[in-house]
Each structure stands twice: as structure tokens, then as C-alpha cells.
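Handoff note, outgoing to incoming analyst
You'll be picking up this chain. Sequence as last confirmed:
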Amino acid sequence: MSLRRSPSSLGSRLMSAVSQSAMVQLLGVRLDNLAGEVPQNQVTDLTDDLASKAGAGATTAALATKAATADLASPDDDKGAALVKLERNVTVQRALKSALNLYESGATGDGETDDQAEIQAFLDANVGKTILVPNGTFVIGSNIVLPSGTKLIGTGGTIKMSAAASILLALNGSEFVIDGLTIDKNDTENPAIWGFSTANSRITNNRILNCSAGNGILLRAQTSANGGTQDVHDNLISGNFLDCQGAHSVVSQIGIGIDADLNGQNGAAIWNASPGTLPTTTYYARNNRVIGNEIIGGNYAIGMYFATGNLISGNLSRDNGGGVTAPTGAIRGISMQNGSSQNTVVGNSFVNTQSASIHVAYGSVENLVSGNRMHNEIIDFGQVAPGSTVDGSQACIQVTTGAKRNTITGNKATILNDNSNAGAEFFVNIGPHCDGTTVSGNEFYGAVAKAGINVESTYESTSAIATSYAVSKGFSAADWASAALDAVTVKGNRLNLTTAKPAIQFIQAGAIDLTNVIEESNAVEGSFSTRFLKDQTTGTGSFSGKANWNNADEIELPQSSTINVFGGTNFKATTLGYSDIVAINGGTKGQVIALRMNGSGAVAASGAINLQGGANLVSSASARLHLRYDGSAWYETGRVE
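Most recent structure output, in case you need it:
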């Protein structure tokens, strides 16, 4: 028996063979799963309506009910997921009695014939109605434009893009429901679902396959010249599965995107040419919910430009490049760029992300990144094969280029590596222009290539600081718009590094200031805890802040004749001395420090450093010098040579 027969013939055949109640069971309807989510009287009404419509030979209601009620929330589902599914069930129930079957359009669903013309005419003739997509494969050779209010409910069928289709489903308006579809994107470089200034719509429980090029689901706030005249707002994208694995021929390939039309503007180029300047836009992506989706692969799993006040929660992004199975071409899990603000990114999971799991950049401000989980089992984020030495990684959480006042809290990341090689460069990287960033209460475990948490006011690829983010990447300072960095707080984090790298480092280089930083109450565990804090200060720029160094096992100072210390009363330092140390800046009255020498050079007696007997301390493997600051100069209190 084939459900791809005409509705009337199928209904009569079924009724001749089975009773109404038996037919409900035959169609696989699981109305009992609605218990506790939809009132029982509504379930009973739905059952009666199904039986009566099936008895009249109309199978659309049966198919709709099957799609709406199969495999609903189990007792193990969280309340958020249950509410989303309840919302879906009620929406489908309300539309049930007027549902139509896609075969009524004259479409063949044979997997070969282009059904676009029949389907488009059918949609245009039934504006705002519910259309069921039953078993079959409906090939689409050009755009399908859905009128406002259209509801497409999948009941076993597949919609497949041909190579000629520029957009599969174009949503031009509001109040759409796209639910339960299987979409075969056929690896074409075009979106599967593109909403133009779409509002108050639901894209839920769909399967989008062969999505290695172009975008999967894209909701974009358009200018009037591009098909829309409003923000993209108050939409729900939930429970979808997107398979985006494979080499990406389109750099901007995104699994799920909510953004604003940039009209051909390059946000990164505009920012780098004039730091602090964003592209112009008229409309924004606001108050949307992206919940509980799964994206495999993808250049970006979830991307946001000019997005404000959105909730991104409970999503899973996995194998975004460089993972155990080494899919190629992917970069980031969730990316917020070009002025994205006040978004909440909470409770998402990331497995084997090639670059940043969470990326915040280019003027994106006041976002909350909380309670996310990152797990990577890789040798190097940039690799595409075991043993590769390619380094394309960033941090698990990357905050850079003008992303101000963002809060990174309560996240956990684990990086496991074989052969003792390092994985990501950092767990968290805070870069230029990112004033007011707070990194607190996070837990990090595993191997990093440069440092656990990095706070850096300048990106200079020619820097002698080997653990700088920009080193070896070929960036120039102009490209990354180096600027002063102010008021970054690193507090209450727990780190357990399995590579001999600094757990937390602050880099101030050249004339670029790093000011008012706060580091306190962080904990470091594991065998590599001896290199905890790294003060990498070079050049003429200032480095200041309230710092509680007392919990530091050791602070590594840069190679310079003048070293900088600030805050605390018990300061241990390592210097890779290539020249004599003749001055110490930044002390507070009563501060006591211990310098452990390593390499060549010495601590030389001077007006600023008063050594016992005026004797220099020459560097050696065991050399230690203890000093105390009286408010005007440093005085030796003891040494080991």
C-alpha cells in the first residue's frame, strides 16, 4: 500500500479493510504521547476528527496527526523542550481541519520530475493554509516562494533541491510554520530555507541533508530592495538536524543564520580600515530563539550579524573540522559579529570544533556566554589528518576586535590530545578593543598551545612574544586594529593544564596600553601549575590594574632590562634574562618579590635596586633574589646563588 496515491482512493480502500479505530492504529498515530502536554479533551477531539475524515476518504488529517503526535516529549525531556513541542502540537491541531495534501497540487513526488510549478501554483491558491508533505521525493528546480501564513508539515516526504534552484523555500512574510520536513539540499550553494524579514514563524523538527555548501536555514532582515521591510524577529528555530559535513566551496556557509543584510559590505574590512566602525544596516535580527538544534560540520554552525536580544540555547555543534573523523573546511561553532548585542548563548554543546567554539567579534557588545560545554579530542585544531602541523586554531572562546562588555561565565572546556601535542591555542582569548570583558567561574582542562586564558592588547605577528595570539598567523597590526585594552576581569576560574604553558597571561606590547585589569581568586591544578601567570610587557605602553598575585605559583616576566610588577605582596617571577635587569616598575610599598633567574644576564645594582654589598646577582639555574619595596626603591632581603 502506498501513501502516495490520491487522497480519495486511499481513504476508501482503508475504510473497506479496517474499522475507523483500527485505521488510526494502522497509520501509526501515537496520541497517548500527548498526555500531560495537551488537555485530554483535545486529544479525544483530535482522534474523532481523524477517524471521521479518514472515513470520508480524506487522509490529510490522518497524515497531519501522525506527524504532529509521533515521538513527542518523553519524561526525560527538559521543560524547555516540552514547551517547544507543546507549542508545535497546538499549532498543528489548530490547522488540522483545513489541511491539504501536496499531491493535490498535481506534483508527482517521483524523485525525478521537477514539481516546482505545480507546488508554487498550489501554494498561491491556498494562502495561509496547512499543506502536508507525504511520502515521496518532490524535486524543486527553482525557487518556491511561500506566501505569509503558509504551514508546511512533513509526514514522511522529502523536498529535494535540483542544481538549478537558487533558494529552495523562500519565506517572504510572517506567520510561517515549517515542521517535520526532510530537505535534501543536494550540496548546492543556495539556502534550503531563506526567510526575508520573516517574523513570528516556526521552523521546527526538520532534517536538512547534504548541506555542505551555502546555508541551511537563514533568516535575514532585508532592506526593501531585497524583499523585506522590517526586522527579522520573534521566530523559533528548534529541533532541526543539519548535516553540513564536507568541503565548503562557500566561505560563508552557515548551518543556521540570523542576521541583517549588509548589502555587499565587508564588516571585517570596514572595521580594520577604521576601528570602531560597523557596516550600515536599517533592520536587525531580534528576539529570535534558536533552541535544541543539531548541526554536524558547517563553516559556522550558527552565525549572527547585527543580531540583538536573541536566545541561543541547547544546541549541539559537532565535528566542525579537525575532529576525529577530520571533516574539512569548518571554522566556528557559534559566531556573533557586526554589532550583535545582548544575546544569550547558554547551555550549548560543542564537540571537535576546528577553531573557536564561540566567537564574539567586530563591535558585538554585552552578550552573555554561559553554561556552555566544549569537548575536543584532536591533535591540532587546524589539522585535517593525524600528525599535521597546520595551526589554524584560535581559542575555545574567542573575544576580539571591539567586542566590549561581554560576560564569559560558567563554561566548561576539555581538550584531549594524543602524543602530548597541544590543541587549541587558548581556552579563552581576549583581544584588542574588548574593554570590560569578564571571564569568571569557568572550568578548563587539557592541552593548550600557548596559554589557558590570554588577555592581549595588541596583535603583532612580528612580536617576540611567542605565546601571542598573532604570532605565526601572518597578520599585521593594521589588520587587527591594535588598540588599548581596559578593564578586563579574570576571576574565580579553575584551570588544569596538561601542557607546560601559563594558565593565565597578560600581554602588553609596544605603545599599546593594557590597563585596569583584575586577576583574582583563580585556581590552577595539575602537574603544570608552576607556570601560572605570565606578565608579557614590552615597549612603552602602560600596564596597570588591581591584581591579586598571591595565588600565583610563578609569574613569568618578559625579556627586558626593566621589569614590571604590580599588586600583591608575595610575587615570584621568572625572567629569561638576556640582559641585566636594572629597574623594577609598578611596586607598592611593602611589596615583597622573589626573582628566579634563568638564562644569561644579571640583576644589577642601581639607584632603583639596592643590593647587599652592591654585588650583582648573576643568573644561574638556582639563582634567587628576594627584594622589598619601601615606596621609593627596592632593597635586597636575601639571595640564593
